[in-house]
Specification:
Order of helices and strands: EEHHHHHHHHH
Oligomer: single chain
Number of strands: 2
Largest sheet: 2 strands, antiparallel
Number of helices: 9
Helix content: 55-70%
Distance between the termini: 56 Å
Structural class: mainly alpha
Length: about 325
């Protein structure tokens, strides 16, 4: 960071101190460079003080020792006004920049959550309408009717990992990665490449569980951006998972178990020996390892969600009690 000062300084008389929260710099001006050794501003004619630069007025001392006591307060007052005006301008600019950044961030997050809500709602409504029209026969066509929309939504869901990693949203990037990558593995590898499992009832019910979670979650996030809250939606967001998450883990496990034999017979994604690279890969064994991962991931994710539920609903209860006391 380079700072163009108004006039030259004396390097031998300058010093700085690095503290925990700030860096304090002492600059000594050359007395022969400007009348009465006073600068009308800190930076050069066309320069502008950076946002991180602040003036400690508690340590302000006039540098013109030759002036009389009568003239000295006037000079100090003028310089104080100039520096205060410049500092205020920088602070206002910084605040405006922060507001602009928050506006862009909120717009992006709202658009993302809205589009995801629309996509998952389309999948959920398609599954429900087809079931009421066709009855149990609709379960065999659930993947066929909704897979293309669900795949697009699931690909877009990887943005949630980056949102958490870069601090755009609260939450753990690791937890988001576990959820998103687990679904992607199931959808794009296990289900998409196995035509037999696509017609199985467990896929239909798995899609219902996934979309039920999301049509609750995304509206909650959209309201949160505007610091708004609907009590029932908040309760649903932090309570519906108690049934939906375990159901989702069980259905994912069933899909994997029902797919093992097909992948074993078809050899899909498996690499047998011998081959040029002398490397073997047994995809059914990977699926068996994934079953273990489902169990371990379920424990971690359920504990995480339970902690979130306790924190959120407990805090919400305290806020409600405070509101009741204020009304009384």
């Amino acid at each position: 960071m380079r700072l163009s000062l108004h006039s030259p300084i004396d390097p031998e008389e300058c010093s700085f101190h690095i503290l925990d929260r700030q860096i304090t710099v002492k600059l000594k001006k050359r007395r022969t460079e400007f009348p009465k050794n006073a600068w009308p501003r800190l930076v050069a004619e066309n320069g502008r003080s950076p946002q991180w630069l602040k003036i400690d007025f508690d340590r302000w001392v006039s540098t013109d020792d030759s002036d009389s006591e009568k003239e000295k307060p006037d000079l100090d007052a003028e310089l104080l006004r100039q520096f205060a005006s410049e500092t205020k301008e920088v602070e206002l600019t910084s605040k405006n920049d922060d507001d602009d950044d928050m506006g862009i961030k909120a717009t992006y997050l709202f658009a993302y959550n809205l589009l995801q809500f629309i996509g998952f709602s389309a999948v959920f409504s398609t599954l429900m309408i087809s079931y009421f029209r066709e009855g149990p026969d609709a379960r065999a066509n659930g993947y066929k009717h909704t897979a293309h929309i669900l795949m697009m939504c699931q690909l877009a869901a990887f943005l949630e990992v980056f949102n958490a990693f870069f601090g755009l949203v609260k939450g753990s990037a690791v937890t988001s990665l576990m959820q998103v990558s687990g679904r992607a593995f199931m959808l794009f590898l296990v289900i998409r490449n196995n035509p037999e499992i696509q017609k199985n009832d467990c896929v239909f019910y798995l899609f219902c569980v996934w979309t039920s979670v999301e049509v609750i979650r995304y509206p909650y996030y959209m309201l949160e951006l505007f610091q708004r809250e609907i009590g029932f939606l908040t309760w649903l967001r932090y309570s519906a998972w108690i049934v939906l998450y375990p159901a989702g883990f069980v259905l994912e496990g069933l899909c994997v178990v029902y797919s093992l034999e097909w992948y074993r017979l078809s050899g899909k994604f498996s690499i047998p020996l011998p081959n040029a690279m002398n490397i073997s890969l047994d995809f059914p064994f990977i699926l068996q390892c994934y079953l273990v991962g489902i169990v371990l991931g379920a424990v971690v994710l359920l504990q995480y969600m339970f902690a979130l539920r306790q924190k959120k609903l407990k805090r919400g209860g305290k806020d409600d009690k405070k509101k009741i006391k204020k009304k009384q």
